[in-house]
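F.,

This is the one I mentioned.
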């Protein structure tokens, strides 16, 4: 069984951490068989599973349901479940959401988007024994206000991101996802924190990588993000594609420069 201690040791040893989204039992099972160490039940399910335009319509009930399915067939990977949009509007709702994801969904960790805004929530969750993953950079739950764009391109916003990453770690976060930030900034943040930093569209120098399963298998409807890669088109089976993803992250072959943003 994967643990926080093992994930911390992997960071210290420079061994890449492989994370992938999964939304139901068979996806989780085959991802784990391929060697995926961290499964993210992402609210990206709103787009790739439910067919919505963005992640905003995803409910806490949806997240609990998908986490339950994943955890029935995941007997090995660390499982992170996303706190959905507006389930973190105040402390009591975020605590209630985490309780359901951990008790009913049996997640190992919850993830919430944002920096300074969520620091007090991270502290409370950590004090209650709930492992928390932060999420900085491009924040899909803020798309109506900010759009989808690379974060931390200017010196000021880069400094702010580094500062917020440290705030999250100091508040008790045990992991951090960085989405769509320049590779150099991602490296700087990774080097500045003792907790594992998982990147998506953040270059190859973070402690690990995460991708959306549907992008890896070419199931995405429309244009897949630049930072993703279809691993199925080069091989014969879903199992081999997942195995290829794991070994390419482990060896540092993914992401290549063509998958970098900013
Ligand atoms: O919901 C999701 O899949 C995510 C990843 C893109 C990090 O949050
Ligand atoms: Na998400």
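My design for it:
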């Amino acid at each position: 069984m994967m643990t926080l201690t093992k994930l911390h040791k992997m960071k210290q040893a420079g061994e890449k951490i492989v994370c992938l989204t999964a939304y139901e039992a068979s996806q989780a099972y085959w991802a784990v068989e391929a060697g995926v160490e961290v499964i993210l039940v992402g609210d990206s399910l709103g787009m790739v599973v439910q067919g919505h335009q963005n992640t905003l319509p995803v409910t806490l009930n949806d997240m609990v349901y998908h986490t339950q399915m994943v955890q029935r067939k995941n007997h090995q990977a660390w499982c992170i479940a996303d706190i959905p949009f507006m389930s973190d509007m105040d402390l009591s709702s975020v605590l209630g959401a985490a309780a359901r994801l951990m008790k009913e969904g049996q997640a190992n960790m919850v993830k919430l988007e944002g920096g300074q805004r969520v620091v007090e929530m991270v502290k409370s969750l950590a004090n209650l024994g709930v492992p928390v993953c932060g999420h900085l950079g491009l924040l899909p739950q803020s798309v109506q206000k900010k759009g989808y764009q690379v974060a931390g391109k200017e010196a000021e916003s880069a400094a702010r991101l580094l500062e917020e990453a440290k705030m999250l770690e100091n508040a008790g976060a045990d992991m951090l996802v960085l989405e769509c930030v320049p590779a150099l900034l991602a490296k700087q943040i990774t080097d500045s924190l003792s907790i594992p930093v998982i990147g998506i569209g953040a270059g190859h120098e973070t402690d690990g990588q995460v991708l959306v399963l549907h992008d890896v298998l070419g199931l995405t409807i429309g244009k897949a993000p630049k930072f993703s890669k279809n691993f199925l088109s080069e091989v014969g089976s879903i199992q081999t594609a997942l195995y290829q993803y794991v070994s390419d992250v482990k060896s540092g072959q993914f992401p290549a420069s063509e998958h970098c943003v900013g």
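Strands lie at 17-21, 38-41, 78-82, 109-113, 132-137, 175-179, 197-200, 208-211.

Talk soon.
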